[in-house]
Amino acid sequence: MAPAMRDRAPSPAIFEFNSGRLCLDFTNTVRARPLSDRVESINKYDDLLDWSRQATILTPGEAGALAQQADRRARQAAEALARAIALREAIHGLFSARAAGLPARVVAGVVYLDGAFYYHAWSEVWLGRWIAADPVFHQFPADATHIKFVEGGPEEHLALLKIIGKIGMEIVEDKG
């Protein structure tokens, strides 16, 4: 007999899907982008699952199964939420730059934070050369803790799956 799915109450959040593009609808899960007025709709992993279910990316059964796994693997669920938020902010940065008439692209790699490297996505904007901009960490330009591996859309980001867990990095202090 299969394990029972975790009971999930319907989400109190009803997300809007009115842009015609899921990436824009995902970006719009933040209202009032200035930091002082910011209203975040995705505050926890269950919110991300609810958005994905309402977007029909996940079936209710898939969302329930992922929620059950999240109960057992809280750290991995928190990391998945952080990656989703980082991607959302990179998409926002990309569209903001494009709206201002600047060429921009999404890139991905790792960022060094609190003694470890984590998968991360951020934007690059063309200002005579490509400049890294990280809306998640409010950095323009993004600092040297960002190591880019790929640039482009989701298909290019999937290439990272081939190297996750297979590379090692070491922090070396400059003695000069």
Any overview of this molecule?
It is a single chain. With 176 residues, the chain is α+β, with helices and mostly antiparallel strands. The chain is built from 5 helices and 6 strands, in the order αββαααββββα. It has helices spanning 22-27, 45-54, 60-72, 74-99, 154-157, and strands at residues 30-31, 39-40, 104-113, 116-126, 130-133, 146-151. Helix 2 (45-54) packs antiparallel against helix 3 (60-72) and helix 3 packs across helix 4. The chain is globular and about 55 Å long.
Nearest-angstrom radius of gyration?
Answer: 18 Å
Strand content: 15-25%
Compute the number of strand runs: 6
Backbone shape: globular
| N→C terminal distance | 64 Å
Keywords for this structure?
176 residues; single chain; two-stranded antiparallel sheet; alpha+beta; 4-stranded antiparallel β-sheet; 5 helices
